[in-house]
Every structure is written in C-alpha cells, then in structure tokens.
Amino acid sequence: MPGELPADAHDTNASPVPTGPAAERGPRERILDATTALLAEGGREAVSTRAVGAAAGVQAPTIYRLFGDKQGLFDAVAAEGFRAYLDSKTAREPLADPVDDLRAGWDLHIGFGLANPALYQLMCEPRPGAVPPAAAAGAEILAAHIRRIAEAGRLRIGEERATHLVRAAGTGAALTLIAMPEERRDLDLSLDAREAVIAAITTEAPVLADPGPVGAAVALRAALPGATALTDLERALLREWLDRIAGTAEPR
C-alpha cells in the first residue's frame, strides 16, 4: 500500500546492536542517519525496513513507532536535511545589497542540491494538495529575502508572486542540473536562470523613483508591519488592498 515500507517491514530478526559513537545516539537519530546514507548511496529504492534497521541497529517496530510509515520517515529525513541547509545559510552574514543577498542565497541553494542530490529531490518532491514541511520552511526563508528587496523599494511585482517565481526557477534549475550527467553539467544554466528571474522581479533603482501605483503599493506593503498607528484589522484590510494593486503588475 502507498506509504508503507517494503514487504520486509515486518521482519523481526534482531539487528546488530550499535557500538562506539553510534551507540551514543538515540534510535531516532540512528534511523535518520541510516536512511540519509541509504538515500545517498542508492536512492529511494535502497530504503527498506531491513536495510534501515540493520544500519541503525533497531527492529521494524521501532521505525514504525517513531515515524508511522515510509512517508513519515522521509518527511523526517527531509526536515533534518533542511535543518542542515539552514545551518549553512545562517552561517553567513547577509549582504548589504538585498538583491546580491538573493543571488548568494540562490547559489547556496543550488550548491546544496548538487552536493545532496537524493536528499534535495526528497525535500522538493511534489505532493498534490499539500506542501512538504521542508519546502514550506524553505519558502519562509525565501520570502524573507524578497521582503528585504521590497523594503529597499526595488521589487517591481508583489512579494508573493516574486517568491513563487524565484522558488520555481531555483528548484527547476537545481533539479535540471541534478538530472544531468556530472561530466556534462552546465553550471551556467543556474547563473542564466538566476539573472533572468532577478531581472523579472527587481529594478536597479527604487521603484518609487518612477512613480506609479504598483511601485508605491509594493513599497508600502513591505513597510506595513511597522505601521503601528493602525490596528491589526486596519493593517489586514490595507494589506489586502495593496496586494490587489501590486498583483496587477507585469514583469517589465
């Protein structure tokens, strides 16, 4: 059935008890480590209860008790992978120019995907009607990058649309490069995609230098959280109006 681990999931043969440094980690951490290693070595097909249990030194019931089913296990692995990705992002200081900071974030994103292809594909796996937890957390980080650009007055379209465009382009570029044989991988593809999407969503100078309702709406929308003179209800109403104005923009 969908979501279940392979047929050996009910194999209760004892797994080797871990020794050394591995023994100091709890069963959950050992299972996640084992699953991540199996994914890196052989992809999804390599992940079975028997293989995970043998590598982690646990039995099948422990895996089910901690993760529920295969999707739960994969979601947990993806969340751990995203945590590692976040650590790499927060280790660097934001650049003064928010557009350059978005470029740096893009490059870090692509680099993480190429260094961890199986994990990245798992993190970005489409799921009809739902957003994987790791992908949702990533969208929040990207939205913060876009917000900085909007606050600088350099966003030419609405924040939500800009976030979706960058996310779609970045994920697509990473997955395309992952699918290429390493010896034929064209890294300029990522740079071209990056600059194309940045040109579509940003301006060289603050948009208010060229007056217009869309630019004004985008800039005011970014500053709205600081409008303490308004009540929460008033801010929500104004945000809706500004989003409606900004949503009429087309990339120039």
TrEMBL record:
The entry's DNA-binding region: 48-67
The protein, known as: TetR-family transcriptional regulator
Name of a matching Pfam family: TetR_N
Region entry Disordered, spans: 1-28
HTH tetR-type domain span: 25-85
Cleavable signal peptide: none
UniProt GO molecular function: DNA-binding transcription factor activity; transcription cis-regulatory region binding
InterPro entries in UniProt: Homeodomain-like_sf, HTH-type_TetR-like_transc_reg, HTH_TetR
Keywords for this protein: DNA-binding, Transcription, Transcription regulation
